[in-house]
């Protein structure tokens, strides 16, 4: 009834305001849950209210990889936190956040297991040619068995993890159970980790049969997997990328694959999504995935919890659950 | 000359060319201790070939497509050993061997890791829809239709292993690292396994989100996975088979998939290879593999070593490396 909704509206207004920032094609499923504690303000739904709320917005909930630019940040002078719902934060102007003292939170561990199991799935697929075998059967080619190239054994392979963060660690745990040996490269050595550390990715590559790229995209990691690293990895090497497309020099990777100078790849991310280099479409030693390593039904429940927990912590002046170290 | 020498070497009969001879290379099976007598290279029909050579044959090298029947054993009274290239023994009349004091040496654990790897790969693929998404990208649909639908997380799922032999045990170890909850059904409870045991497969299915079929094909296990078991597994259940096609009632499974009584399947084996039920070709919730769970060059080399090792031990009166003992 009209009176009730007016009361509800008033209640809403008294709650702390959380601005929802999203690209028009993005949405999220837990608005009602957030509305029980916060006054949600979505500029796309209510553009006329931007001026009204400008000075009250202390928190932005960023839906997926909707870009958070310096212009957007400048519009909200009282902004203190951006609560993200992605594993990556390369869509957020971190430099501007640092300058303004704005905290940023990401998905934390909500997606790590999902991403790690997907990375392992891509690796098994690339080595053992699971997708290629499935294509082979569906094309009716099995009766000609004996022509189909063998896959390669996973056990005993030396796996180099590029970026031993929460996703990289989960990948390591899983691959250890297959009898792989693990080594890693990270910005800094991790003291409590039992795996060998290589300060340079090239050195890691020389000593690996497989590279699993799990790190964040930042200026320092742009094209971290370059021609030299691919050469070091060698003709039988396999690259799995569940980080960001720009971590790998894609043009070079394609050339290496075309020339048979690298053994194979499993790619969930690309430099210019959704465009995938055409040359890869005919390759059986490559597995192509449309950026979905974290996309499971269960992930959606998990991310809700992380977003809610970070907002609660912020408004209660408690330590954030998954802050991004923004040095 | 090599030919003259070899005429004195003890003979091992081979009925059909083992796939591994083609896929790896026959030279890996060469030994100075014995020679192969290749029935498949003779113009004589098999029974005549057997009669001609009967008294000189002490051992049989068997692979999947060439059954060792009581009849064959009768025609080869000097045979004391059957060595298989396969992990499975369903093509060997084991009671007939036992009756005649013919020892059987199988491929033992040589394949177990590789088969387990593929089983896990198929399970991740079915749940996370890796092959489907790869197909989607190769068809150009990521560009035109956008994101591919969500998959289901592997971690946290209850997985029922059907047959906790060496392969089943390797599967269990790997899946534990993904955070799966393992239980199993086997002929007998395994004292070394701490996983919950179900004495019948129906109950296992009722308490599982996924079944992984790892057991041998015997009279007792033929069509053991029937309609009741599949219905007990349920609408969100997934089945992976790397054992033998006939362990599952394939017609019923296809119906269950068509009617969405189960969520999906990952299949390396079929009742009538290389024929695959047509209905499966149209499904996105099924991953099809052309019976190649053992097919890696590394496994094949290990197999060659084991086969040669067993045969040499036999002819040198030493203990066999992988004597198959009835449990």
Structural class of the helices, strands and pairings of chain B?
alpha/beta
Q: What's the CATH architecture of the largest domain in chain B?
A: 3-Layer(aba) Sandwich
Reported CATH architecture of the largest domain in chain A: 3-Layer(aba) Sandwich
Number of strands of chain B: 11
Whole-number average pLDDT of chain A? Answer: 93
Name given to the CATH homologous superfamily of the largest domain in chain B: NAD(P)-binding Rossmann-like Domain
How much helicity do the residues of chain B have? 25-40%
Work out the count of structural domains of chain B: 2
CATH class descriptor name of the largest domain in chain A: Alpha Beta
DSSP summary: helix tally of chain B = 14
- The figure for the number of domains of chain A is 2
The residue ranges of chain A in which pLDDT falls below 50 over 5 or more consecutive positions are: none
Task: Describe the model.
- The complex is a heterodimer of chains A (327) and B (327).
- Chain A has twelve helices and eleven strands.
- Chain A is α/β, with parallel strands linked by helices and 327 residues long.
- In chain A, the strands form two sheets. In chain A, strands 7-6-8-9-10-11 form a six-stranded parallel sheet.
- The radius of gyration of chain A is 23 Å and the shape is elongated.
- Chain A starts with a helix and ends in a 12-residue tail after the last helix.
- The model of chain A has no long low-confidence stretch (mean pLDDT 93).
- With 327 residues, chain B is an alpha/beta fold.
- In chain B, 36% of the residues lie in helices and 14% in strands.
- Chain B has helices at 2-6, 19-23, 46-53, 70-75, 94-100, 112-128, 130-138, 141-145, 166-177, 201-206, 227-233, 250-258, 278-281, 297-315; strands at 11-14, 35-38, 57-62, 81-84, 103-105, 158-162, 181-185, 210-213, 238-241, 264-267, 286-288.
- Chain B has a six-stranded parallel sheet.
- In chain B, strand 6, helix 9 and strand 7 form a beta-alpha-beta unit.
- Chain B starts with a helix and ends in a 12-residue tail after the last helix.
- The model of chain B is unreliable at 1-5 (pLDDT under 50).
- The interface between A and B is large, with 53 and 55 residues.
